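Today's session is about reading a structure prediction critically. Students often jump straight to the picture, but the first step is always the sequence itself: look for stretches that repeat, for charged clusters, for runs of hydrophobic residues. Only then move on to the predicted structure, which in these notes is written as discrete structure tokens rather than atom positions. Here is the chain we will use throughout the hour.
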Amino acid sequence: MTEVRTLRLRLSYDGSAFHGWQVQPGLATVQATLSEAVWAVTGERVVVHGSGRTDAGVHAEGQVAHLSLQQARLPAAALQRALNARLPASVRVLEASEAAAGFHARRQARSKCYRYRIYREAVCPPFLWRYVYHHPYRLQEEAMAAAAPRFVGRHDFRSFAASPAKGAPGLGDTVRTVTRSELWRAGPELVYEVEGRGFLHHMVRNLVGFLLEVGRGRRGGEEIGAVLAARERRAAAATAPPQGLYLMRVAYSEGE
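Below is the predicted structure for this chain, in token form.
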């Protein structure tokens, strides 16, 4: 009987040309691109499971994924090289390794860290516009930095989740735990980082959207508790654009 191998991949990708992570018929996605590369290299049709689904235009520096192979005996390091030779330059396998049987990139993830970049100078360099949100207008940056930690804790984040489609069922469990939420100035950019066990659809971009409203003076950081308690999407603020968002890293328990 052929032994099934589980392989773990650490990935980086430029999401500009992709319609997100998840396979969508007729659209270019990161998951479909990786699965096709695996088939070309190994001859096996597999699904590459990511730790989470990034949206269209969102980037990753440290996405984690896994796949199972039944026949291919190619060593992990050789598989990494072969995949990178097949993949477009916008997707790189940074590391490939053998994983324990049963390892699942999404179900076993202990925490994820996202970063959002806001470019503050008057003119955004043409080689940066796909990777930052350009906002050269006045912002009260100190107020934004003071408001950011108010998201820390275990809360119902329904107000900061994507609105369900008309006629669709409710959002289900929208309680999440945020362990770190910080915003700081780094040269010409404002950088926001948030870390937690898991995030709802559009949640990070909606947190950024609210912080931007704080920076514009239209909302106050002290309102965050009331917005969370409202459990209504319209109580928060507009969703920030996707191109400034990065999945930076995914953490697992020691030994996983």
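Discussion point for the tutorial: The longest strand covers residues 175-186.
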